Amino acid sequence: YRRDAGSYAAEGVDARASARSMGERRSAAASGSAPRRASVAPQLDITAIPVRLSHIVQMTAAEKIRLVITVFVVGALFLGVIFLTAYGASMQRDINKVNAQSAAIDDDIDNLRLSIERGRNIKTIEQRATAELGMIYPAGTQLKYLAEMELAPTDMAQSIKEKAYGS
User: Fold this and answer.
1) Chain-centre distance of CA 113, in angstroms?
2) pLDDT per residue over 96-127, tens digit each?
3) 29 and 37 in contact (C-beta within 8 Å)?
4) Residues 6+ apart with CB under 8 A from 14
């Protein structure tokens, strides 16, 4: 337990003599002649520290107003930082949702492209035509060759005019 010089004086003890005796005890302990005692961390006696608020009381009204305004401005800035951080977190959450949706759509697009590629395979087309639509290959007598058929005219407008006007 540590005491300040004022408390020693109040008890009639000379602070310097007490300090000397403490120093002697320490040196004796260091030399090994006296049994060692457990060291105790010094404690601060907060009742001995005078609290002075006189500098606040002596402030002028303008200084007090300036101090209050400064405190409010700093508080408002801290609140602004907190709200902007919360807004940024909200925006980041929205961005993450959109990114997740975009990734899901990309997966769907990849699956559709794969199914289109599978659908373009001639074997797949033949199996689907025969199984789902009931189609069969034509017999030899059911075939009609293009050479036997009448070819369509090359000029469509001219053939319509001929049919319409009979010329």
Assistant:
1) 34
2) 999 999 999 999 999 999 988 887 888 888 88
3) yes
4) 8
